[in-house]
Design goal:
- This protein is an all-alpha fold.
- The protein folds into 2 domains: 64 residues, Orthogonal Bundle (Arc Repressor Mutant, subunit A); 145 residues, Orthogonal Bundle (Tetracycline Repressor, domain 2).
- Helix content is 67%, strand content 0%.
- The radius of gyration is 19 Å and the shape is globular.
- Keywords: DNA-binding, Transcription, Transcription regulation.
- This is TetR family transcriptional regulator.
- InterPro entries: Homeodomain-like_sf, HTH-type_TetR-like_transc_reg, HTH_TetR, Tet_transcr_reg_TetR-rel_C_sf.
- It holds the Pfam family TetR_N.
Length: 218
């Protein structure tokens, strides 16, 4: 559950080394969102703390003061995304013990996921870029963003396959096809606008993405 912005407000500070007054009122949530969008656009290596500071309208020293290194800032972005995804994961996990049939559980899980993707489409772009990382950053991405959702959705897919409610050749493959297909379709809505006006009609776009995803399940 998102904390109110005020809960993360950075206190006003006096100008001193490493603690500039410029932009001091920008809250932590906004700084992390701007960092997320910048990392998503350029990737980790090509993104500088100075660029994130420029986008946020603050001095780079303020980011250094509150997050330390660029690596720590990237990790904070991943943690923020994980925190925002927690309610979605909990709702998906609860479906396995719900009274719905195995197919309807999957359908409801996909609807929950699509709601989340549409509410924060830039997460898909961040993930697409961050998934090319290696080592500790990739490990953190898997541990905080991928595995928690994997561990609640894959059992729903597998259950539906066992009950013949869905044609599931491989639950793992289906998981990644759904995860990436939906998130990238929404995140790259600007590209689809070249061919269709659908992304300009968010409610209709959301409904069509859901119906298409469900249709792909057979």
């Amino acid at each position: 559950m998102k904390a109110p912005a005020a809960a993360h407000a950075l206190p006003a500070v006096k100008r001193a080394r490493g603690r500039p007054a410029q932009g001091a009122s920008v809250d932590r949530e906004t700084l992390l969102r701007n960092a997320r969008k910048t990392f998503a656009k350029h990737g980790y290596e090509a993104t500088s703390v100075r660029e994130i500071a420029r986008v946020s309208g603050v001095d780079a020293a303020l980011l250094a003061h509150h997050f330390g290194s660029k690596d720590a800032l990237w990790e904070a972005v991943v943690v923020q995304i994980a925190e925002h995804a927690a309610p979605m994961i909990a709702a998906t996990d609860a479906l396995r013990t719900s009274p719905f049939g195995t197919r309807e559980r999957v359908e409801r899980a996909i609807a929950i996921y699509i709601d989340k993707v549409f509410s924060e489409p830039d997460i898909g772009l961040f993930f697409a870029t961050a998934a090319t990382e290696e080592g500790a950053r990739l490990d953190l991405l898997v541990a905080r963003m991928v595995r928690p959702y994997h561990d609640v959705l894959v059992p729903l897919l597998a259950d539906a396959g066992k009950q013949k409610a869905l044609k599931v050749v491989d639950a793992e493959v289906l998981f990644f096809m759904l995860l990436n297909g939906i998130s990238k379709t929404v995140a790259y809505g600007h590209l689809m606008r070249v061919f269709s006006t659908l992304p300009e009609q968010e409610r209709k776009y959301k409904r069509v993405v859901l119906e298409t995803a469900l249709g792909m399940l057979g």
